[in-house]
Design a protein that fits this description.
alpha+beta; six-stranded antiparallel β-sheet
Length: about 450
């Protein structure tokens, strides 16, 4: 092995320039071919895309040794890797990551209908050597990435509430990494869907918009719990808005609009989705995108993985702190609602809520809202606590990870966006108040 490492030549593995692989058949006949994708696995391994059962594939299965020639896209320096084939993976994080990247490469080269990943061939790198030549000077080292990570971490560390934390994360990405379009989605463990709780850089916030697990870049990153990065426009990972179809399946007679528009760019050219994890559990996805090609490198991916890790730990810590640090505050007199009654309809089939004719929310957040307004009408209550919601079996909160704070934040933001005469107001750690400006007429439907 030379003094160069795989990490130092990662720009060669971004798919900008095809590599050349040399193999030898069992009878000793050499074969040389181009290969579109060489994927960095770790400092001792790379993975090559298996798309066709061609001569190269046949040779590798009979003779596991190969030589790979890589070209640095900036310095034009060649590197040769001596490889030994180990195995082929057809599912899992590595396969899905390569599949997403290959889709971007195929789209950029006009081969979307030709490239299809059948497997990820994992190779051990037995030797790496720089080919003698006259390369161009190395580009200046991209500085500031570690500093950007530090500034992001410091900003997140100062947050004491979930809404503050989410806003700080998006602001930090913009201020320190120049990322203008981003969103954070949380996982609903019951429905196995991701819902948007915060976004920046879009015409509409899209708070409450949902994505199915495995759907698009975001859904694949969540399902496989691995970063997915695409550096070119691709049609293979356009987002679908599947909420309507599932709702219609549940309620064939329901003709009301419950689809919150997805806030993403209409023509993204670079996308990066990173799972937000904590103590081994998936909490959500941090997603960024750009209308320009080649905006997110492996360095951006590394930084976002670290930011997502910090975000996940902070969310987990805040959820625990809410229970431990709950403070009882004395109730305050509720204002007297005035004006014409406001109709609130609740559909029990999926806990969807409509205020007059306007769709507000559904799912667990809808069930929470229905409990609040029901207690208000029946008992005159306006003061509530997170603890009592967690203990209420009718809400359907999961036992382990309920994401209650995220659901309450989602509900609060949906009410604010609709300028509804019903709002929630935080009154302390783990406590909030229901503010009702008009009389309520509740309608509970099957």
């Amino acid at each position: 092995m030379s003094t160069r490492t795989l990490g130092s030549i990662r720009p060669c593995l971004e798919g900008a320039i095809p590599a050349i692989i040399a193999t030898v058949a069992a009878e000793g006949v050499p074969n040389v071919a181009y290969i579109s994708q060489v994927y960095y696995v770790d400092e001792r391994h790379v993975a090559l895309s298996f798309q066709f059962f061609n001569k190269t594939r046949k040779n590798i299965l009979s003779n596991p040794y190969a030589s790979l020639l890589l070209l640095h896209p900036v310095t034009a320096e060649f590197f040769r890797l001596h490889l030994r084939y180990l195995r082929t993976e057809t599912q899992g994080p590595l396969f899905e990551g390569m599949k997403a990247q290959l889709a971007g490469i195929a789209s950029h080269s006009g081969m979307s209908n030709v490239f299809r990943l059948l497997g990820s061939d994992v190779y051990e790198v037995q030797n790496l050597e720089a080919v003698q030549g006259d390369p161009l000077p190395e580009p200046p080292t991209r500085c500031g990435m570690l500093g950007a990570l530090r500034h992001c971490s410091e900003r997140l560390s100062r947050c004491t509430a979930l809404d503050e934390l989410l806003n700080a994360t998006l602001a930090a990405l913009s201020d320190f990494m120049g990322i203008r379009h981003a969103m954070i989605l949380m996982l609903d463990p019951v429905s196995q869907r991701l819902y948007t709780v915060a976004s920046a850089g879009y015409a509409t916030s899209g708070v409450g918009a949902e994505i199915d697990m495995g759907d698009g870049v975001i859904g694949v990153a969540a399902r496989e719990r691995t970063p997915v990065r695409i550096t070119h426009m691709t049609s293979a990972y356009l987002y679908s808005r599947a909420v309507r179809s599932s709702l219609c399946a549940d309620l064939p007679g329901l003709a009301l609009e419950t689809d919150i528009p997805y806030p993403g760019l209409s023509e993204p050219h670079s996308q990066l989705a990173v799972p937000v994890l904590s103590v081994g559990r998936l909490l959500g996805v941090l997603f960024v995108e750009s209308p320009l090609d080649l905006q997110f490198s492996f360095e951006d991916e590394d930084v976002l993985v670290a930011v997502a890790g910090h975000l996940g730990a902070a969310i987990q810590l805040m959820q625990s702190a809410t229970e431990a640090g709950q403070v009882e505050l004395p109730p305050t007199p509720a204002p007297t609602p005035i004006g014409t009654p406001l109709q609130v309809r609740h559909f029990r089939a999926n806990d969807s809520i409509f205020i007059n004719e306007t769709y507000l929310i559904k799912g667990v957040a809808g069930a929470i809202f229905w409990k609040l307004v029901s207690d208000y009408v029946q008992q005159g209550r306006t003061e509530f606590s997170n603890r009592e919601l967690r203990l209420d079996p009718t809400l359907g909160l999961p036992d382990v990870t309920d994401n209650l704070d995220a659901r309450l934040l989602l509900l609060q933001r949906r009410l604010v966006e609709h300028s509804a005469p019903i709002q929630t107001q935080k009154t302390g750690r783990g406590r909030f108040r229901l503010l009702v400006q008009r009389p309520l007429e509740l309608v509970d439907l099957a």
